[in-house]
Fold this protein.
Amino acid sequence: MKAELNEQALLKGLAENDSKAVEALYKSHFSMIQHFVTNNNGSFDDARDIFQEAMIALYEKVQLEHFTLSCQIKTYLFSICKNLWLKRLQQMGKYSTPLSAQEESISVEEDLDQFEKKDAAFAIMDRALNSLGEPCKSLLEGYYLNKKGMQELASQFGYTNADNAKNQKYKCLMRLKKLFFAQYNIGE
Amino acid sequence: MDDIQLQETIERYLTGDMSVEERTQFEAIRKATPEIDQMVIEHAMFLREMDIYVNRKNFSKLNKQVFNQLLDAGTWAPEAEQSTSSRVIQLWSKYKKVTAIAASVGGFIALFTSAMMLFFFPSINGNQILELSKAVEKIEQNQKVQGHLLNEVKTKVPENAKLVSGGSGFLIDTKGFVITNAHVLKGEGAIVVNSLGQEFKATIVYSDKNSDLALLKIEDEDYKQAKALPFTIRKKSSDLGEDIFTLGFPRNDNDIVYGKGYLSAQTGFNGDSNTYQIQISANPGYSGAPVFNEKNELIGIMSSRQKLAEGVAFAIKSDKLFDLVETLEENELTKDLNVKLNKQKVKGSKNRKAQINSFKNYIYSVRAFN
Protein backbone atom coordinates (compact mmCIF):
# COMPACT_ATOMS: atom_id res chain seq x y z
CA MET A 1 0.00 0.00 0.00
CA LYS A 2 2.75 2.38 0.96
CA ALA A 3 4.70 1.59 -2.16
CA GLU A 4 1.68 2.33 -4.30
CA LEU A 5 1.17 5.69 -2.66
CA ASN A 6 4.79 6.48 -3.24
CA GLU A 7 4.52 5.68 -6.92
CA GLN A 8 1.47 7.91 -7.26
CA ALA A 9 3.29 10.75 -5.53
CA LEU A 10 6.27 10.30 -7.80
CA LEU A 11 4.13 10.42 -10.93
CA LYS A 12 2.36 13.51 -9.66
CA GLY A 13 5.71 15.15 -9.00
CA LEU A 14 6.92 14.18 -12.45
CA ALA A 15 3.82 15.71 -14.04
CA GLU A 16 4.60 18.96 -12.23
CA ASN A 17 8.26 19.07 -13.29
CA ASP A 18 9.41 18.49 -9.73
CA SER A 19 13.15 17.88 -9.82
CA LYS A 20 12.96 15.77 -6.63
CA ALA A 21 10.65 13.30 -8.35
CA VAL A 22 12.89 13.18 -11.42
CA GLU A 23 15.88 12.58 -9.19
CA ALA A 24 14.12 9.80 -7.31
CA LEU A 25 13.25 8.07 -10.59
CA TYR A 26 16.84 8.23 -11.76
CA LYS A 27 18.14 6.95 -8.45
CA SER A 28 15.84 3.97 -8.32
CA HIS A 29 15.77 2.91 -11.95
CA PHE A 30 18.73 4.12 -14.00
CA SER A 31 21.14 1.41 -12.83
CA MET A 32 18.78 -1.25 -14.15
CA ILE A 33 18.81 0.35 -17.61
CA GLN A 34 22.55 0.91 -17.51
CA HIS A 35 22.99 -2.76 -16.76
CA PHE A 36 20.62 -3.81 -19.50
CA VAL A 37 22.07 -1.60 -22.24
CA THR A 38 25.73 -2.24 -21.45
CA ASN A 39 25.05 -5.96 -21.42
CA ASN A 40 23.46 -5.72 -24.82
CA ASN A 41 26.04 -4.10 -27.03
CA GLY A 42 25.64 -0.57 -25.73
CA SER A 43 27.67 1.99 -23.83
CA PHE A 44 26.94 4.07 -20.76
CA ASP A 45 26.07 6.99 -23.02
CA ASP A 46 23.60 4.84 -24.93
CA ALA A 47 21.96 3.90 -21.62
CA ARG A 48 21.74 7.56 -20.69
CA ASP A 49 20.13 8.52 -24.01
CA ILE A 50 17.64 5.67 -23.88
CA PHE A 51 16.68 6.35 -20.28
CA GLN A 52 16.23 10.05 -20.92
CA GLU A 53 13.90 9.24 -23.79
CA ALA A 54 11.93 6.84 -21.62
CA MET A 55 11.63 9.56 -18.99
CA ILE A 56 10.19 11.89 -21.60
CA ALA A 57 7.74 9.21 -22.69
CA LEU A 58 6.60 8.72 -19.10
CA TYR A 59 6.45 12.46 -18.55
CA GLU A 60 4.25 12.95 -21.58
CA LYS A 61 2.08 10.06 -20.51
CA VAL A 62 1.41 11.54 -17.08
CA GLN A 63 0.51 14.84 -18.74
CA LEU A 64 -2.52 13.18 -20.32
CA GLU A 65 -5.85 13.91 -18.71
CA HIS A 66 -7.02 10.37 -18.06
CA PHE A 67 -3.74 8.71 -17.60
CA THR A 68 -3.37 5.39 -15.87
CA LEU A 69 -0.31 3.27 -15.35
CA SER A 70 -1.27 -0.38 -15.26
CA CYS A 71 2.06 -1.52 -13.87
CA GLN A 72 4.91 -0.39 -11.66
CA ILE A 73 6.99 2.55 -12.84
CA LYS A 74 9.99 0.26 -12.95
CA THR A 75 8.30 -2.17 -15.33
CA TYR A 76 7.03 0.65 -17.50
CA LEU A 77 10.42 2.36 -17.83
CA PHE A 78 12.13 -0.93 -18.50
CA SER A 79 9.63 -1.90 -21.21
CA ILE A 80 10.02 1.43 -22.98
CA CYS A 81 13.81 1.28 -22.78
CA LYS A 82 13.91 -2.29 -24.00
CA ASN A 83 11.83 -1.45 -27.06
CA LEU A 84 13.76 1.71 -27.84
CA TRP A 85 17.09 -0.04 -27.50
CA LEU A 86 15.98 -2.92 -29.68
CA LYS A 87 15.04 -0.45 -32.40
CA ARG A 88 18.34 1.39 -32.05
CA LEU A 89 20.27 -1.86 -32.38
CA GLN A 90 18.33 -2.82 -35.46
CA GLN A 91 19.03 0.56 -37.02
CA MET A 92 22.72 0.09 -36.40
CA GLY A 93 22.52 -3.39 -37.89
CA LYS A 94 23.89 -4.86 -34.68
CA TYR A 95 20.90 -6.85 -33.60
CA SER A 96 21.46 -10.54 -34.06
CA THR A 97 20.85 -12.43 -30.86
CA PRO A 98 17.88 -12.05 -28.53
CA LEU A 99 18.47 -9.50 -25.82
CA SER A 100 19.42 -10.75 -22.42
CA ALA A 101 17.18 -9.30 -19.76
CA GLN A 102 16.08 -10.35 -16.33
CA GLU A 103 13.41 -7.76 -15.73
CA GLU A 104 9.81 -8.37 -16.63
CA SER A 105 8.32 -6.19 -19.29
CA ILE A 106 4.89 -5.37 -20.67
CA SER A 107 3.67 -4.48 -24.13
CA VAL A 108 4.05 -0.75 -24.66
CA GLU A 109 3.55 -0.56 -28.40
CA GLU A 110 0.67 1.88 -28.27
CA ASP A 111 2.56 4.23 -26.00
CA LEU A 112 5.62 4.03 -28.20
CA ASP A 113 3.52 4.87 -31.24
CA GLN A 114 2.25 7.95 -29.45
CA PHE A 115 5.75 8.83 -28.38
CA GLU A 116 7.08 8.53 -31.89
CA LYS A 117 4.32 10.71 -33.29
CA LYS A 118 5.09 13.36 -30.70
CA ASP A 119 8.74 12.97 -31.47
CA ALA A 120 8.11 13.65 -35.15
CA ALA A 121 5.94 16.69 -34.39
CA PHE A 122 8.58 17.96 -31.98
CA ALA A 123 11.26 17.68 -34.66
CA ILE A 124 9.09 19.53 -37.17
CA MET A 125 8.41 22.34 -34.72
CA ASP A 126 12.08 22.52 -33.84
CA ARG A 127 13.14 22.72 -37.47
CA ALA A 128 10.45 25.28 -38.25
CA LEU A 129 11.53 27.49 -35.34
CA ASN A 130 15.19 27.19 -36.23
CA SER A 131 14.67 28.09 -39.86
CA LEU A 132 12.71 31.24 -38.98
CA GLY A 133 15.76 33.39 -38.45
CA GLU A 134 16.05 36.32 -36.08
CA PRO A 135 14.34 38.19 -34.52
CA CYS A 136 11.38 35.88 -35.14
CA LYS A 137 12.91 32.85 -33.46
CA SER A 138 13.82 34.63 -30.23
CA LEU A 139 10.61 36.60 -30.19
CA LEU A 140 8.41 33.51 -30.44
CA GLU A 141 10.56 31.55 -28.03
CA GLY A 142 10.33 34.44 -25.62
CA TYR A 143 6.57 34.40 -25.85
CA TYR A 144 5.74 30.69 -25.98
CA LEU A 145 8.71 29.02 -24.33
CA ASN A 146 9.75 31.54 -21.72
CA LYS A 147 6.23 32.93 -21.23
CA LYS A 148 7.33 36.53 -21.36
CA GLY A 149 4.74 39.30 -21.66
CA MET A 150 4.43 41.53 -24.71
CA GLN A 151 5.65 44.55 -22.76
CA GLU A 152 8.81 42.79 -21.68
CA LEU A 153 9.45 41.48 -25.19
CA ALA A 154 8.91 44.97 -26.63
CA SER A 155 11.67 46.43 -24.49
CA GLN A 156 13.94 43.43 -25.02
CA PHE A 157 13.69 43.67 -28.80
CA GLY A 158 13.61 47.44 -28.96
CA TYR A 159 10.03 47.96 -30.15
CA THR A 160 8.55 51.32 -29.26
CA ASN A 161 5.49 49.78 -27.66
CA ALA A 162 3.77 46.48 -26.91
CA ASP A 163 1.47 46.85 -29.93
CA ASN A 164 4.40 46.97 -32.32
CA ALA A 165 5.85 43.90 -30.66
CA LYS A 166 2.49 42.18 -30.94
CA ASN A 167 2.28 42.96 -34.64
CA GLN A 168 5.75 41.57 -35.17
CA LYS A 169 4.92 38.49 -33.13
CA TYR A 170 1.89 37.71 -35.28
CA LYS A 171 3.86 38.19 -38.46
CA CYS A 172 6.43 35.75 -37.16
CA LEU A 173 3.76 33.38 -35.94
CA MET A 174 2.17 33.23 -39.38
CA ARG A 175 5.51 32.36 -40.91
CA LEU A 176 6.14 29.71 -38.30
CA LYS A 177 2.72 28.14 -38.88
CA LYS A 178 3.34 28.06 -42.59
CA LEU A 179 6.65 26.28 -42.08
CA PHE A 180 5.15 23.94 -39.53
CA PHE A 181 2.09 22.91 -41.52
CA ALA A 182 4.16 22.40 -44.66
CA GLN A 183 5.53 19.27 -42.98
CA TYR A 184 2.96 18.39 -40.37
CA ASN A 185 0.42 15.83 -41.44
CA ILE A 186 -2.98 17.04 -40.29
CA GLY A 187 -4.65 13.76 -41.14
CA GLU A 188 -2.88 12.01 -38.32
CA MET B 1 -10.08 42.71 -40.38
CA ASP B 2 -6.62 42.00 -41.68
CA ASP B 3 -4.79 38.70 -41.29
CA ILE B 4 -2.77 39.77 -38.29
CA GLN B 5 -5.80 40.96 -36.38
CA LEU B 6 -7.70 37.82 -37.24
CA GLN B 7 -4.80 35.66 -36.08
CA GLU B 8 -4.66 37.58 -32.83
CA THR B 9 -8.40 37.28 -32.27
CA ILE B 10 -8.31 33.54 -32.84
CA GLU B 11 -5.47 33.13 -30.40
CA ARG B 12 -7.25 35.19 -27.76
CA TYR B 13 -10.35 33.10 -28.33
CA LEU B 14 -8.47 29.84 -27.92
CA THR B 15 -6.50 30.90 -24.87
CA GLY B 16 -9.68 32.09 -23.14
CA ASP B 17 -8.60 35.69 -23.29
CA MET B 18 -11.98 37.17 -24.30
CA SER B 19 -14.83 38.74 -22.45
CA VAL B 20 -18.13 36.81 -22.46
CA GLU B 21 -19.64 39.32 -24.83
CA GLU B 22 -16.78 39.22 -27.30
CA ARG B 23 -16.73 35.48 -27.13
CA THR B 24 -20.40 35.17 -28.03
CA GLN B 25 -19.87 37.53 -30.93
CA PHE B 26 -16.87 35.66 -32.20
CA GLU B 27 -18.63 32.30 -31.95
CA ALA B 28 -21.45 33.66 -34.07
CA ILE B 29 -18.96 34.77 -36.73
CA ARG B 30 -17.23 31.41 -36.53
CA LYS B 31 -20.48 29.55 -37.09
CA ALA B 32 -21.35 31.69 -40.06
CA THR B 33 -17.94 31.57 -41.73
CA PRO B 34 -16.49 28.12 -42.48
CA GLU B 35 -13.11 29.64 -43.38
CA ILE B 36 -12.77 31.18 -39.95
CA ASP B 37 -13.94 27.97 -38.32
CA GLN B 38 -11.23 26.13 -40.22
CA MET B 39 -8.62 28.64 -39.11
CA VAL B 40 -9.67 28.20 -35.49
CA ILE B 41 -9.35 24.43 -35.72
CA GLU B 42 -5.98 24.72 -37.36
CA HIS B 43 -4.70 27.18 -34.81
CA ALA B 44 -5.97 25.04 -31.94
CA MET B 45 -3.99 22.17 -33.37
CA PHE B 46 -0.94 24.37 -33.73
CA LEU B 47 -1.18 25.64 -30.16
CA ARG B 48 -1.54 22.08 -28.88
CA GLU B 49 1.63 21.05 -30.71
CA MET B 50 3.37 24.17 -29.46
CA ASP B 51 2.33 23.24 -25.94
CA ILE B 52 3.75 19.74 -26.27
CA TYR B 53 6.90 21.23 -27.79
CA VAL B 54 7.36 23.71 -24.95
CA ASN B 55 6.66 21.10 -22.27
CA ARG B 56 9.07 18.62 -23.73
CA LYS B 57 11.74 21.24 -24.21
CA ASN B 58 11.48 22.34 -20.59
CA PHE B 59 11.31 18.83 -19.24
CA SER B 60 14.29 17.69 -21.33
CA LYS B 61 16.34 20.41 -19.74
CA LEU B 62 15.38 19.28 -16.24
CA ASN B 63 15.89 15.66 -17.24
CA LYS B 64 19.46 16.28 -18.37
CA GLN B 65 20.23 18.54 -15.46
CA VAL B 66 19.19 15.98 -12.87
CA PHE B 67 21.12 13.25 -14.65
CA ASN B 68 24.30 15.31 -14.82
CA GLN B 69 24.07 16.32 -11.18
CA LEU B 70 23.70 12.72 -10.10
CA LEU B 71 26.51 11.66 -12.42
CA ASP B 72 28.83 14.33 -11.02
CA ALA B 73 27.93 13.21 -7.53
CA GLY B 74 29.22 9.77 -8.43
CA THR B 75 25.88 7.99 -8.28
CA TRP B 76 26.87 5.71 -11.14
CA ALA B 77 30.15 4.42 -12.48
CA PRO B 78 30.05 4.71 -16.24
CA GLU B 79 33.45 3.16 -16.89
CA ALA B 80 33.03 0.00 -14.88
CA GLU B 81 30.56 -1.57 -17.24
CA GLN B 82 31.68 0.09 -20.41
CA SER B 83 34.57 -2.24 -21.03
CA THR B 84 32.17 -4.90 -22.22
CA SER B 85 31.08 -2.71 -25.08
CA SER B 86 34.50 -2.27 -26.58
CA ARG B 87 35.45 -5.20 -28.61
CA VAL B 88 38.84 -6.69 -28.32
CA ILE B 89 39.56 -8.71 -31.36
CA GLN B 90 42.34 -11.05 -32.08
CA LEU B 91 41.73 -12.25 -35.54
CA TRP B 92 45.12 -12.37 -37.04
CA SER B 93 45.74 -15.95 -35.98
CA LYS B 94 43.35 -17.03 -38.70
CA TYR B 95 45.68 -15.59 -41.26
CA LYS B 96 49.05 -16.58 -39.92
CA LYS B 97 50.02 -18.49 -42.95
CA VAL B 98 50.64 -15.81 -45.42
CA THR B 99 51.17 -17.09 -48.88
CA ALA B 100 53.58 -15.18 -50.91
CA ILE B 101 52.58 -14.25 -54.36
CA ALA B 102 55.05 -13.07 -56.87
CA ALA B 103 53.80 -10.11 -58.68
CA SER B 104 54.74 -7.25 -60.89
CA VAL B 105 56.66 -4.20 -59.84
CA GLY B 106 53.89 -1.72 -60.02
CA GLY B 107 51.97 -3.43 -57.27
CA PHE B 108 49.68 -6.27 -58.04
CA ILE B 109 46.75 -4.88 -56.23
CA ALA B 110 44.87 -2.64 -58.54
CA LEU B 111 42.62 -0.39 -56.64
CA PHE B 112 39.89 0.87 -58.81
CA THR B 113 39.56 4.53 -58.05
CA SER B 114 36.38 4.75 -60.03
CA ALA B 115 34.81 2.22 -57.76
CA MET B 116 35.32 4.33 -54.70
CA MET B 117 32.18 4.46 -52.73
CA LEU B 118 31.26 6.87 -50.06
CA PHE B 119 29.68 5.56 -46.97
CA PHE B 120 27.11 7.40 -44.98
CA PHE B 121 26.51 7.02 -41.32
CA PRO B 122 23.39 4.88 -41.47
CA SER B 123 21.04 6.08 -38.79
CA ILE B 124 22.43 8.87 -36.72
CA ASN B 125 22.56 11.73 -39.10
CA GLY B 126 21.12 10.55 -42.35
CA ASN B 127 23.12 11.79 -45.25
CA GLN B 128 24.65 14.85 -43.76
CA ILE B 129 28.00 13.34 -42.90
CA LEU B 130 30.42 11.37 -44.95
CA GLU B 131 32.98 9.10 -43.47
CA LEU B 132 36.30 9.57 -45.04
CA SER B 133 37.28 5.97 -45.53
CA LYS B 134 38.07 4.54 -48.90
CA ALA B 135 35.79 1.75 -49.95
CA VAL B 136 37.47 -0.59 -52.27
CA GLU B 137 34.98 -2.40 -54.35
CA LYS B 138 37.14 -4.57 -56.40
CA ILE B 139 40.63 -5.80 -56.13
CA GLU B 140 42.43 -7.57 -58.81
CA GLN B 141 45.45 -9.55 -58.08
CA ASN B 142 47.65 -9.22 -61.04
CA GLN B 143 49.74 -12.30 -60.99
CA LYS B 144 51.26 -11.88 -64.38
CA VAL B 145 54.93 -12.25 -64.04
CA GLN B 146 56.45 -9.66 -66.24
CA GLY B 147 59.69 -10.22 -68.07
CA HIS B 148 61.48 -7.39 -66.45
CA LEU B 149 61.15 -7.96 -62.71
CA LEU B 150 63.20 -5.51 -60.75
CA ASN B 151 61.84 -6.29 -57.36
CA GLU B 152 59.87 -9.20 -56.22
CA VAL B 153 57.12 -7.76 -54.08
CA LYS B 154 55.27 -9.96 -51.68
CA THR B 155 51.87 -9.01 -50.45
CA LYS B 156 51.09 -9.34 -46.82
CA VAL B 157 47.42 -9.58 -47.51
CA PRO B 158 46.49 -13.26 -47.15
CA GLU B 159 45.75 -15.11 -50.35
CA ASN B 160 42.08 -15.00 -51.30
CA ALA B 161 41.46 -12.14 -48.93
CA LYS B 162 39.55 -9.19 -50.28
CA LEU B 163 40.36 -5.61 -49.42
CA VAL B 164 37.19 -4.00 -48.15
CA SER B 165 38.09 -0.61 -46.81
CA GLY B 166 40.95 1.71 -46.19
CA GLY B 167 42.07 4.93 -44.63
CA SER B 168 44.99 6.45 -42.79
CA GLY B 169 46.58 5.87 -39.41
CA PHE B 170 49.56 6.99 -37.37
CA LEU B 171 51.87 5.71 -34.65
CA ILE B 172 51.09 6.74 -31.09
CA ASP B 173 53.66 4.47 -29.51
CA THR B 174 56.80 3.36 -31.30
CA LYS B 175 56.25 -0.21 -30.12
CA GLY B 176 54.06 -0.40 -33.19
CA PHE B 177 50.70 0.92 -32.04
CA VAL B 178 48.78 2.63 -34.81
CA ILE B 179 45.60 4.63 -34.31
CA THR B 180 42.93 4.81 -36.98
CA ASN B 181 39.14 5.20 -37.19
CA ALA B 182 36.94 2.26 -36.25
CA HIS B 183 34.95 2.78 -39.44
CA VAL B 184 38.09 2.30 -41.51
CA LEU B 185 38.33 -1.28 -40.28
CA LYS B 186 35.34 -2.83 -41.92
CA GLY B 187 37.18 -6.11 -42.48
CA GLU B 188 38.52 -8.79 -40.21
CA GLY B 189 42.21 -8.15 -40.57
CA ALA B 190 44.44 -5.28 -41.61
CA ILE B 191 47.78 -4.33 -42.95
CA VAL B 192 49.48 -0.98 -42.74
CA VAL B 193 51.68 0.54 -45.43
CA ASN B 194 54.23 3.26 -44.74
CA SER B 195 55.03 6.20 -46.96
CA LEU B 196 57.74 4.19 -48.72
CA GLY B 197 55.21 1.55 -49.73
CA GLN B 198 56.39 -1.13 -47.28
CA GLU B 199 53.62 -3.33 -45.96
CA PHE B 200 53.34 -4.59 -42.40
CA LYS B 201 50.99 -7.09 -40.89
CA ALA B 202 48.88 -5.69 -38.10
CA THR B 203 46.45 -6.97 -35.50
CA ILE B 204 43.30 -5.13 -34.58
CA VAL B 205 43.60 -4.88 -30.81
CA TYR B 206 40.81 -2.46 -30.08
CA SER B 207 37.90 -0.98 -31.93
CA ASP B 208 35.13 1.19 -30.54
CA LYS B 209 32.39 2.39 -32.83
CA ASN B 210 31.13 4.98 -30.36
CA SER B 211 34.31 6.97 -30.26
CA ASP B 212 35.16 5.81 -33.82
CA LEU B 213 38.68 4.98 -32.71
CA ALA B 214 40.59 1.79 -33.29
CA LEU B 215 44.04 0.60 -32.32
CA LEU B 216 46.26 -1.64 -34.44
CA LYS B 217 49.46 -3.32 -33.38
CA ILE B 218 52.05 -3.87 -36.05
CA GLU B 219 53.22 -7.45 -35.68
CA ASP B 220 55.74 -7.99 -38.36
CA GLU B 221 59.40 -8.98 -38.23
CA ASP B 222 60.16 -6.39 -40.90
CA TYR B 223 58.99 -3.61 -38.60
CA LYS B 224 61.87 -1.73 -37.03
CA GLN B 225 60.91 0.21 -33.98
CA ALA B 226 61.12 3.88 -34.80
CA LYS B 227 62.85 6.53 -32.74
CA ALA B 228 60.79 8.55 -30.29
CA LEU B 229 57.71 10.20 -31.74
CA PRO B 230 58.44 13.62 -33.24
CA PHE B 231 55.15 14.95 -31.86
CA THR B 232 53.31 15.22 -28.53
CA ILE B 233 49.75 14.10 -27.97
CA ARG B 234 47.83 17.06 -26.68
CA LYS B 235 45.61 16.44 -23.67
CA LYS B 236 44.09 19.90 -23.35
CA SER B 237 41.65 21.22 -25.90
CA SER B 238 42.88 23.42 -28.70
CA ASP B 239 42.06 27.00 -29.55
CA LEU B 240 39.67 28.26 -32.13
CA GLY B 241 41.40 29.57 -35.21
CA GLU B 242 44.55 27.55 -34.60
CA ASP B 243 46.39 26.64 -37.78
CA ILE B 244 46.38 22.92 -38.35
CA PHE B 245 47.58 20.43 -40.92
CA THR B 246 47.12 16.80 -41.72
CA LEU B 247 49.04 14.08 -43.52
CA GLY B 248 47.25 11.05 -44.88
CA PHE B 249 46.69 8.66 -47.72
CA PRO B 250 43.52 9.73 -49.50
CA ARG B 251 44.76 8.46 -52.84
CA ASN B 252 45.14 4.92 -54.00
CA ASP B 253 48.67 5.27 -55.30
CA ASN B 254 49.99 5.39 -51.76
CA ASP B 255 51.42 8.87 -52.00
CA ILE B 256 51.19 10.78 -48.77
CA VAL B 257 49.12 13.95 -49.12
CA TYR B 258 49.43 17.13 -47.09
CA GLY B 259 46.45 19.34 -46.23
CA LYS B 260 46.25 22.56 -44.30
CA GLY B 261 43.46 24.44 -42.54
CA TYR B 262 42.29 25.83 -39.25
CA LEU B 263 40.19 24.83 -36.27
CA SER B 264 36.77 26.36 -36.88
CA ALA B 265 34.68 25.18 -33.90
CA GLN B 266 35.18 23.51 -30.54
CA THR B 267 32.38 21.05 -31.24
CA GLY B 268 31.62 18.83 -34.17
CA PHE B 269 28.47 17.79 -35.97
CA ASN B 270 25.32 18.71 -34.01
CA GLY B 271 27.37 20.08 -31.14
CA ASP B 272 29.22 16.80 -30.54
CA SER B 273 31.76 17.69 -27.87
CA ASN B 274 33.99 14.73 -28.72
CA THR B 275 35.05 16.31 -31.98
CA TYR B 276 36.33 19.56 -33.43
CA GLN B 277 35.09 21.15 -36.59
CA ILE B 278 37.93 22.00 -38.89
CA GLN B 279 38.21 23.80 -42.16
CA ILE B 280 40.22 21.62 -44.50
CA SER B 281 39.64 19.92 -47.78
CA ALA B 282 38.96 16.33 -46.78
CA ASN B 283 38.85 13.46 -49.20
CA PRO B 284 37.83 9.88 -48.56
CA GLY B 285 40.94 8.15 -47.26
CA TYR B 286 41.80 10.87 -44.82
CA SER B 287 39.82 8.95 -42.18
CA GLY B 288 42.14 8.21 -39.30
CA ALA B 289 44.77 10.72 -40.40
CA PRO B 290 46.43 12.78 -37.66
CA VAL B 291 45.70 16.49 -37.26
CA PHE B 292 48.65 18.53 -35.98
CA ASN B 293 49.08 22.10 -34.83
CA GLU B 294 52.14 24.26 -35.37
CA LYS B 295 53.69 23.27 -32.07
CA ASN B 296 54.42 19.66 -32.99
CA GLU B 297 51.31 18.55 -31.14
CA LEU B 298 48.75 16.04 -32.30
CA ILE B 299 45.37 17.62 -31.61
CA GLY B 300 42.93 15.32 -33.38
CA ILE B 301 42.11 12.44 -35.65
CA MET B 302 40.26 13.06 -38.91
CA SER B 303 36.96 11.24 -39.03
CA SER B 304 34.27 12.66 -41.27
CA ARG B 305 33.13 15.63 -43.27
CA GLN B 306 29.83 17.36 -43.80
CA LYS B 307 28.25 16.35 -47.04
CA LEU B 308 26.91 19.66 -48.22
CA ALA B 309 29.55 22.01 -46.95
CA GLU B 310 32.80 21.53 -48.86
CA GLY B 311 35.85 21.95 -46.70
CA VAL B 312 34.09 21.35 -43.39
CA ALA B 313 35.44 18.28 -41.64
CA PHE B 314 35.39 16.81 -38.15
CA ALA B 315 38.27 15.53 -36.11
CA ILE B 316 38.08 13.46 -32.93
CA LYS B 317 39.74 15.35 -30.08
CA SER B 318 43.15 14.01 -29.07
CA ASP B 319 42.18 13.70 -25.39
CA LYS B 320 40.01 10.75 -26.44
CA LEU B 321 43.28 8.87 -26.97
CA PHE B 322 43.99 9.16 -23.26
CA ASP B 323 40.53 7.74 -22.57
CA LEU B 324 41.29 4.91 -24.96
CA VAL B 325 44.56 4.04 -23.22
CA GLU B 326 42.77 4.09 -19.89
CA THR B 327 40.18 1.66 -21.23
CA LEU B 328 42.95 -0.64 -22.41
CA GLU B 329 44.59 -0.57 -19.01
CA GLU B 330 41.36 -1.52 -17.31
CA ASN B 331 40.70 -4.50 -19.52
CA GLU B 332 42.20 -7.86 -18.54
CA LEU B 333 42.94 -8.75 -22.15
CA THR B 334 44.66 -5.54 -23.11
CA LYS B 335 46.29 -4.22 -19.96
CA ASP B 336 49.60 -5.92 -20.77
CA LEU B 337 49.96 -4.05 -24.05
CA ASN B 338 51.44 -1.18 -22.10
CA VAL B 339 50.58 1.55 -24.59
CA LYS B 340 52.25 4.83 -23.66
CA LEU B 341 51.30 8.22 -25.01
CA ASN B 342 53.97 10.82 -25.54
CA LYS B 343 53.24 13.78 -23.31
CA GLN B 344 56.73 15.28 -23.45
CA LYS B 345 56.99 18.51 -25.33
CA VAL B 346 58.87 18.04 -28.59
CA LYS B 347 61.21 20.84 -29.50
CA GLY B 348 61.19 20.11 -33.18
CA SER B 349 61.41 22.53 -36.01
CA LYS B 350 58.46 24.78 -36.67
CA ASN B 351 59.28 24.86 -40.32
CA ARG B 352 56.43 23.10 -42.08
CA LYS B 353 58.56 21.26 -44.61
CA ALA B 354 60.83 19.92 -41.88
CA GLN B 355 57.81 18.90 -39.82
CA ILE B 356 56.30 17.00 -42.73
CA ASN B 357 59.59 15.30 -43.41
CA SER B 358 59.93 13.97 -39.92
CA PHE B 359 56.24 13.19 -39.35
CA LYS B 360 55.63 11.27 -42.52
CA ASN B 361 57.54 8.20 -41.36
CA TYR B 362 55.03 7.78 -38.55
CA ILE B 363 51.98 7.85 -40.76
CA TYR B 364 50.52 4.80 -42.45
CA SER B 365 47.96 3.84 -44.99
CA VAL B 366 45.59 1.32 -43.44
CA ARG B 367 43.90 -1.43 -45.47
CA ALA B 368 41.34 -3.76 -44.05
CA PHE B 369 40.45 -7.07 -45.66
CA ASN B 370 38.10 -9.95 -45.24
Chain B touches chain A at residues 3-4, 7-8, 42-43, 45-46, 49-50, 52-60, 62-67, 69-70, 75-76, 78-79, 81-82, 84-85, 122-123, 210 (CB under 8 Å). The longest strand of chain B covers residues 163-173.
